[in-house]
Every structure is written in C-alpha cells, then in structure tokens.
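Today's session is about reading a structure prediction critically. Students often jump straight to the picture, but the first step is always the sequence itself: look for stretches that repeat, for charged clusters, for runs of hydrophobic residues. Only then move on to the predicted structure, which in these notes is written as discrete structure tokens rather than atom positions. Here is the chain we will use throughout the hour.
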Amino acid sequence: MLVMGINGSPRKGNSYRLLDNFLKGAKEAGFETILIDACKIKITPCQECGYCSKEGICRIDDEMTKIREDLENAKYVAVCSPVFFFGVSAQIKALIDRCQPLWVKKYLLKNAKSKNDRKGFFFSTGGFHKEITFKGGELIIKAFFDSLNVEYEDKIFVPSMEFKNDILKREDCLKKAYELGKSLK
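Below is the predicted structure for this chain, in token form.
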C-alpha cells in the first residue's frame, strides 16, 4: 500500500522534517512511500478553463497527471506546509488547485473512488503563537482531502517556529510524527 507525502516547505525546514519523520515511520511499518516535492515539480497553475468538467481530465499534460493518479491510489496522504499568511505555501496551493479534475469526478460526475479507509495527515509549523495561526491552512487541506475522498485523520501543528531548524528543539513533535507513520495499518 502507498503512503504519499507532499512537501510544501520551500526550504525543507521545520514542516518538512515532520513529514520526513512520518514517512520514515511509515516505511518502517512496511509501506511503500513516495515524496512529491511541490516546490520542485514543474506544473502550470490551474487555468479554470472548464475542460475537466466534461470527463474529469485536465487538458494540461505536465507532472500533475502522474501526481493525480498517485493521489487517487494512495491509501494515506500526508501534506506539510509552513504557514504563509495564515494559509499554505503557494507551491502546495498550486498543486491542490490542479486537483480540480478530482473534485469534478466526485461532485459533478459522481464517480470518485470511495474512501476505503483512506486517511490524510497535515503537518504545519508557523512563527506566530496564536490560535488562528493554522486555521486557514487546515481549511484548505480539509477541502483538498474531501475532494480526494480521504478522511482527515490527524495533524501536528507547531507554533513559534521562526527559524529553519527550530523544530530540532521539539523532539517530542518529531517523535510524534514518526510514531504516527509507524502506527499505520
């Protein structure tokens, strides 16, 4: 079974380290893992052309074609992003927006894959230490998972992470991410 990790951390910092530990745990639990680096893939942003509304297929043929296929087949999907203006990074948002064909399959064409115990996880870090810090990003990820027919299972949010390696001071969070991956069945 496939565990798909999607990195939205441009500098592969604190959020990425949480995702990486999660994937290490999943691999140790015997899962096949893949990592998509949203910051390095070459994709065109969604053009809102409406082409996908016919058959749930995007007219743009780039790296997203394979990524959408993997997203439909993954048992577990884990996303990480630092907080950018109370949301997710632009790289993750562009990838999510290009999943419009999957939304179309579910809501317009009524032929999305069933949940079949598919689960999703979200890892995020941010500089602020306010309750609202993670709300915007979490809403985006919940909508993304819903479109994929993936149940939002768990999250790790770590505030006060201003500098790249601040998460190294939070071994408890890194361990929690690893154990979460290792506990997958």
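Discussion point for the tutorial: DSSP finds seven helices and five strands in the chain.
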